[in-house]
Amino acid sequence: xxxxxxxxAIKAVIYLSSKFDAEGNAGIKEIAEFINASxxxxxxxxxxxxxxxxxxxxxxxAGGFYISKEQQRQPIINIVEATDGRSxxxxxxxxxxxxxxxxPCPIHNDYKEARDIIENLFRQKKVQELCEPVTNxxxxxxx
Length: 143
Prior knowledge:
Helix 1 (4-18) packs across helix 2 (28-35), helix 1 packs across helix 3 (39-51) and helix 1 (4-18) crosses helix 5 (77-83). The protein is 51% helix and 4% strand. A hairpin with a 5-residue loop joins strand 1 (56-58) and strand 2 (64-66). The longest helix has 17 residues, at 108-124. By secondary structure, the chain is mainly alpha-helical. It is elongated.
């Protein structure tokens, strides 16, 4: 359902959130290594997230990316919308272009129900909530 870009973006934001108390900006290389992703991909994703004000950046030798306390309180849906857009919660489970309630695909109703549950989860869960298990060593960002 989520693109690989979106999944990488969520991991990058969680990583930045886990560094919040460390008082330092994280560079592209550091983030990419921690989440096991390409530096090029991570760089493009981070630029998109800055543009959508999901995270912040500072230029220069001591520059990098960081997340504010307020941004830690934002729902995960902000990351999804910045990378994949709203259509991820409207698209057909089989990829049909004309799927709708009046012209459903074979899995329309079940997929719509699952999609609505996931959208609700992403609206409720905050970045900080996903960060805590990672910081405490209960959950991981690499696998």
